[in-house]
Amino acid sequence: MFTESFPTKDGKAKLVPSPFSDADEIPDEEYPYVLNTGRQLEHWHTGAMMRRASMLDAIEPVPVISMHPEELEKISVKPGDMIKVTSRRGELVGYARADAWLQSGQVFIPFNFREAAANLLTNPTLDPFGKIPEFKFCAVRVAPADFQRDARRADRDRASLEA
Fold it and tell me: Among 67, 87, 112, 126, which is disulfide-ready with 47 (CB 3.0 to 4.6 Å)?
């Protein structure tokens, strides 16, 4: 497609430069990380479709939050621990995953997990030129999830009740 010409009067493409501008919300002292959202190989569509595919859901069954291994270490989190990501709009919890391909300061959350709906955190502000919401970028903070301790306590309590 378009190897010979474009569907314009003269057959040439019209390219319009767009000036660079920062995102509406950039990291700061309170929210020092950049959240990127996107797809996973196993769940390339929304959860409404892909989570119904039992084979794919078995491969990637739980919500993950990926960060560079050094960033996880900075917040005293190991892969598999529960972590909480908070933005100015909300918070969610998922399992920490180390991903050396991410840069320091980046957090990646796939958008397909209903139980960790990444777009609840993102910024709905529209780009002034493209009129596209900033669903792929916002400032967040990350911390170990407080309820891990409580979940272990609940498991212990449940076991003692059953005994």
Answer: 112
